[in-house]
## 1
Amino acid sequence: MERYRGKSVSPNIAIGRIWFYEKEKCQIEKRAISDSAAEWKRYEDARNTARDQLKELMRKIEEEVGETNAAIFDVHALLMEDADYNAYIRRMIEVQMVNAEYAVHEAGIHFAEMFAAMDDEYFRARAADIRDISQRLVGILTDEGAENVSWDEPMIVVAPDLVPSETVQMDRAKVLAFVTEKGSVNSHAAILARTMNIPALTSMPVKREWNGRLAIVDGSSGILYVDPDLPTLERMRRYEKKEKKAALELQKLKGQETVTQYGKKIRLYANIGNVTDAEDALFQDAEGIGLFRSEFLYLEKNSLPTEKEQFESYRAVAEKMKGKKVIIRTMDIGADKQADYLGLEKEENPAMGYRAIRICLDQQEIFRTQLRAIYRASVYGTVAVMFPMIISVEEVREIKRQIEAVKEELQQEQIPFEEIETGIMIETPAAALISDELAREVDFFSIGTNDLSQYTLAVDRQNPQLERFFDPHHPAVLRLIRMTVENGHRGGCWVGICGELAADLTLTEEFIRMGVDELSVSPPMVLPVREAVRNVAL
């Protein structure tokens, strides 16, 4: 028996034989062209064909797993129309005078690498979407078409990587589980796996030699067993039966209150990055959006997003949530999330450098554009705004002055807006230690436990050598969380948690004991957290 550990993407257990899938690498020839206009026309024709293909994929997935998940390919369609993506391709065709398929291939590599290098899991996941649309366009331009991804019997699909379009073209009835080497828990392929209730693992070094061998995928613990022995096989079969029953029970919690056995109500929200994620949040029965990462609007472009672009995105999410609260975090650019067009200098310690609210207060035009877009969107739903990387009362007061100036501008221009809640992220020890003062300035706190843990422990959470030292359960971190909750309540603030710890089921009861009012988690964790809350009996 061989045993391998990866990262869990979708829970539950699957037992069956492995089907190794590896897309044949397309050799893209770089050719010199003489007519750039004709070559650009080739590209535009391919893009039109791709649009039709995406519409057909959307229809297929709507039938199989619902309209919510079909929107994944709506995102692909939008990415394919992205001005920066197309500008990159056009420059290569017109300036370098190269063939369209080569230009698309290079654009795909460029933008995928840009996203893959980011620290944030959400943004890393967008790399797969870029690769997917680029592969589709290249396939059309080279007349290679889609690869056959069918087989005869239910199998565990093992692959170096899977993009969403490959995932949906597989016969759902013949997929027992997914195991990939590349990928992300927030990728659209991962979202589809969870929606289809298919166990999935990623970050697993896969081997072609596994093809045809018996295996067990433990999607809950992140373990793959190849050629399992009889005791392991019997044990996992019992677990499989038990987990299927538990998953069905979890679905019954949709529409139920997130309330403890003694009547304490917890607001259970979701973390998202775009409209598609909002749909996933609704599918999982989130009660609102506790963190809308607005930075994707900045990172997916080669220039600052306009007020109109931002407004349309915020409005779309607000309308989609139909009155449920949507908390928009202002841009958290800097550190690992770099936008080249901002011209930020390379820093030796970017996590503690020129980022987030520091950029906004320094470059106020950027900040006010975003604030205008948020306030304009406020008439289309229940919108709130929060600000990251706060360390002082003075920063909050300056933010409030900027808000008032923006509201005055909108009034003068007769643009409607609503009064909205304002809050701050508590993700630095400084903010936690002065949370009594900060609470008097805002309506709510949202504790970002990822950065709070990193700064409190003086441990770079991205450094694999320091992994054993990075302990978000450290007493110092938990004391700061408790202090923040207590100070927030004394100052009239409600207090939530939107970092990774919000989904840590071992801490759910402790957070409730502390008095936390809201937990915001990734959409797939909404129902497990609801179950944990409902099991609390103090």
## 2
Amino acid sequence: MAKTSALINKETLLHICNSKQVSSQYLVTKGRFNPERLTRWMDISDSLLPTILQAKKLASCLHIPFAGLYMNPLDIPLKKIPSFRNMRTLWGTSNSDDSALNIAIIDLLSERDFLLTTSLELGDTFPTFSAPFLSVGLYLPLEELEEAVNETRACRTLEPETVISALQAVGERLDRGELDPLILRYAGPGGRREVAHIRPLLRREALEYKLAVELGIPLYSFQERPFGRTQTVPLGTLFHVTAGNVDGLPAFSAVEGLLTGNINLVKLPSGDQGLSLAVFQLLTEQEPRLAPFLYAFQIPSRDTAALRRLADLADGAVVWGGDGAVTALRQLAPPGCKLMEWGHRLSFAYLSRWEGEEDALSALAEHLIQTGGLLCSSCQVIFLDTDALGEGDAFCRSFVPLLERAADRFRAALGEKGEGSLYAWETRLEHAADRLPRTLFPGRGCSLTLREDRELELSPLHGNVLVKCLPQKALLPVLRRQKGRLQTAGLLCPAQDRPALTQLLARAGVTRIAPPGSMSRTLSGEGHDGEFPLRRYVRTVDIQEPSPDRPI
């Protein structure tokens, strides 16, 4: 039986393909059409037509209604693909087929127009992002970015007071509840609690204290020297590559760059859900003078060509993340670009006394549940100052109820619960099959695993924690095996032992010592990984003045 031909308008088919810049090869691949037949379908002088099923598949590939293929070309209100530079491929190459991308862009433009029209009809305003928020390849070519950055460096100066005033104003809006819808959108129901921890850092006195402690001398100030003067100035342009394990980390990194007067080029992590952009929007709306010093980019890590162009503009590259991220940026950064690593770190709790310390242990349990093991400052292993596994067993039995209570109070997302349950079952199976030196203490939404070894390592995530016995005499050699990766130690001990234990931990390489429940609580003026970040983001300029004693 002969199949029914679709009496489509071939001129319309050609018009759609040309407007959307869709190649024949894309249609052949997407629709699995015979190349010769497709060529004939698109030839106006050829009488061959597709079947109805084939025409429906063509319409589906082109993202148009099937009936549109029967219309006259001029009756179809199609957008033409806008001109843009493809930043996903190496410069000078043209071997990629952008048909799928072009169709997606057309679809987005059509949806945008629909939303704008609907918004106007309803008398509402439509939210937009201002110029500082750039998507490479769509809004601003990198060549134009370089010109903008150079113009800012030549003609503008960003004073710390400008940044402090903007942050203070945003903080006051937080206090008045004006940003509650934004918090709920990006941080969920527990967002207010998280903001309460951050809010003290936005106060003027805290920011001024941070600048005084970390810089020591005011930005742009002069100091007299025997040879002349020394001035402290911004490093220049910072390229931030941030991790996605902490919500808002790109914004935090950029704010430190702004406080030191730098131009900031921020690569957003793939896991960022819009919180950092929202913060940037708030800051630039509050203080438009910040806009020329702040640029954010949504670039995939695989687009090394675009990332290298950004790195080439930078005087310093700031990287947050694991060894892979640090290595990748090291390869991208040009010679002379200062690399500032905030890399992978390990933190732990060290308990030399735990009986009768329910309040401190409850705080530790809440820390474990709230951070989920995702932060560099998250406790990965609970070390007990003992050699006796029996004491470790007794500790786990007493600590599990506290961990359960924290898990009930700070309920995890469904995905986190799934990961936790999966880990608990895997541990049980491993223990049953291999008789490994471990004991599992399961709880509701959490678990403890008592291990016989003494190594500091990553715990499973989401309330599943390792417990190990580590007497003081073995503390230093164990920790030194992780030298360069140590960060926070949550110390719980008798008051008379604290000075000696603090010194021992410091000698082992720990850069931060805090109560167990405060391991991830950030305080103004604290260092980070043993350094003051703001000092890394400035440089000194030596200025020799001509005098009779020195030749000109």
## 3
Amino acid sequence: MANRSPRDLIDFVYRPIEGLSDTLERKLGMFSVVIISLSAMLGSGLFVLPALVMVDMGGGTVPVAGIWLAYLLAALAILPAAVSKGELSTAMPSSGGSYVYIERTFGPLVGTVAGAGLWGASMLKSAFALIGFKAYLWSLEELLNITINIELAAIILLALITVINILGVTRIKKIQTPVVTIMVLFLAILCLWSVFTLDMNWGAAFGEGAYGTRWEDVAHASAFVFVAYAGVTKIAAVGGEIKNPSRNIPYGMILSLLIACALYVIISIVMVSAVEPTGYLNESGEAREDPIYVFAEMVGGTTAGVVSAVFAVTVLTSLALASLMATSRFPFAMARDNLLPEALENVHPRFQTPHLAIVGTSVAMGLSITLLPVEEIAKLASGFKIMIFMTINASVIVLRRASDTHSWYRPEWKSPMYPYIQIFGILSGAVLLYVMGMTAVIGGLACATVGLLIYFFYGKSRAHPMLTPWRTVRTELTNASQAEREKRWLVFHTVAGMKPKYSQQMSEGEFVHAMSIIAPHLERFHVRNLFHEIDIDGNGIIDIDEFLLGIDEDNLFDGVSESE
């Protein structure tokens, strides 16, 4: 790579942490973070997936009972991403979540791909949540003696949750708190009721043959239930609306993940101990998509089954409510970065919510419900979600490596066991992609293609080239001298930009500050002498050209030799 002149470097844009401030109001505390995260997880993972996972772990034919292991392994696989997001969120407590972290690390191109893909994947999963309760509706149809149009019911619920989202996050919290609380209590009662009233076969979940016949079956089942935990990090997408984000986001995500994992493991063990795996198959020998109804009916009869169906519809609607909130923040954040039309950045003057982004996402969900095979497409999108989590882990490694140069990266909470937990997250994600096969690859490529089209046809002409942390790390590995030059430009830009009104000029005091970063070994008087040497006209200020040309290696180390 050829060395650039000082003037060439001016073309790069550095976005300090001050540029991440939001106009959204911070209203959510720790309890709200946990509730919203749980509501984004405890939906299909409990009410739809268990029977499907039983069959999947059994090799696709015979259901097995050891699905608790799949839930546990999936939680371990997603834990690094939750920890990494916890660190990233305290450095960038901004609405947009994963998109913001990836865009700030790798630049507009990768950011657009990530943002568009995240929006599409999350939107489709939200749409799927609204039609995923269809298996539970038959009991309500029988009870009420009516015929329910599933698509129409989904559209009506979609309109309702759109209005709630526009009204604000506090209203979402007020709805989801009782929903999540009552759901957990109901499931706890069912489990305890089964323990005291049924002849439980506890060995079913742990005995021979409980985990299928091949390790690949366990791995594939773990990849299958991975989506059950994907919602744990969605709360980071509304980071700009969370109080004390440096504490509430990381600890809230980790706590909600632990709670969800415990619920998944315990409930799945009780379910297969109370009802044989074959009991979760329909008359055609296929996995039923209403396993909680089967479990509840076995424990408490038809009445308990109907109650479980009502809870299923309510919980899956709550999941869509939380998902719409998080999903709408992706286009909001992208519009703020000029990668999507600026109208999507508008915030409602009364409710302080990105109402146009919410409505746009809602319309897309409605079209998906009515026009697309949402279930199949949502499965394809899972592969892209895994890729995103791998990239999130990589972002922490890149930002830590580049933090000396990109001084804005100062997370208030740091990941434990760095970088080993991030490497584990990347490797485990690769394993999940491998066992998922071509489905994951196709889904990932499809989402990436949409992002590339948006970037090259809209965002590229509006996005400024950035001196990103990834560029810094890459240059350090391939061209050390150029990396040092870009570091100095970045330091100048950062220090000079600290003034209330940005200036491309640096005073003596600012120069001293800059040199404390670039050459901390120099004594203050050497730095002052160097400034006056660079300031040829003696006007007390220097520009970028003088700065870069004046601080060559000889100047930086002369002071050391003289002092020694």
